[in-house]
Design a protein that fits this description.
163 residues; 6 helices; binds coenzyme A
Length: 163
């Protein structure tokens, strides 16, 4: 598996994935505004497509929440990253691809010596994702409302990841 930068040529793929029921269930109200965002490359964000032997299987975004321009995470210190992830096709769920994507993404995050921890914010209802993150070493921080979404914040400390 590799993670490669997403770009304008991924528009149809990402829209198709957005329409899959398991993706909608994990992120019901969000509009990722791909037409605009796939043409942008701000320094605080990486948008990546995971490919296995050139076949795209999933999407992952890494942001610096202190610099992200909508301030989605509110007032957070520097030294953090936040991740969003999904597998595109339902037939590709539950086969270890998500775990591999997170391992690659976490290695990318922690390769920056200034990064102390990584955050994720699954919906409170997304209990399978909670289990997925806990297996990767993430620890529950708090229940928190982001816009209209009731979420659980999980955090993976550098020390725990290195161990
Ligand atoms: C969460 C997700 C990225 C994990 O990737 P994956 O390739 O399915 O996961 P793996 O095969 O590496 O590990 C399987 C685990 O993923 C988790 N998982 C979460 N949602 C799942 C789903 N809809 N189907 C299957 N597994 C799911 C479970 O913990 C599962 O383990 P379990 O069988 O013990 O429940 C993926 O399931 C997905 O895209 N889900 C929908 C979108 C989503 O919830 N994204 C996270 C939002 S914060």
């Amino acid at each position: 598996m590799i993670l490669r930068a997403a770009g304008p040529s991924d528009l149809a793929l990402l829209r198709h994935w957005d329409a899959q029921p398991h993706v909608i269930a994990s992120d019901p109200d969000d509009d990722w505004n791909w037409e605009v965002e796939l043409h942008r490359d701000p320094p605080w964000r990486e948008q990546l497509v995971a490919e296995i032997d050139t076949r795209p299987v999933g999407f992952i975004q890494i942001i610096d929440p202190a610099l992200e321009d909508s301030h989605y995470w509110g007032d957070v210190p520097t030294g953090l990253r936040a991740i969003d992830i999904w597998i595109g096709e339902a037939g590709d769920l539950g086969q270890g691809h998500g775990t591999r994507m997170m391992q690659l993404a976490l290695a990318r995050c922690f390769a920056d010596a200034g990064v102390e921890a990584v955050l994720v914010d699954p919906l409170a209802s997304n209990v399978r994702a909670h289990r997925f993150y806990r297996r990767l070493g993430f620890e529950f921080v708090e229940r928190r409302r982001f816009n209209d979404d009731d979420c659980h914040v999980y955090r993976l400390e550098r020390g725990r990841w290195e161990a």
